[in-house]
Design goal:
Largest sheet: none
Structural class: mainly alpha
Number of domains: 1
Helix content: over 70%
Distance between the termini: 48 Å
Length: 33
């Protein structure tokens, strides 16, 4: 049960982190062109 609770708390953070990474990658790709 504890693992599920922590997962629910961590997943949103991971999603926001991945969104930031995606945006950074997009910026780098734009700068390359």
């Amino acid at each position: 049960a504890k693992s599920m609770i922590t997962a629910e708390k961590v997943l949103p953070l991971c999603q926001s982190c991945w969104l930031l990474v995606d945006s950074l990658v997009d910026i780098k790709e734009l700068q390359e062109f």
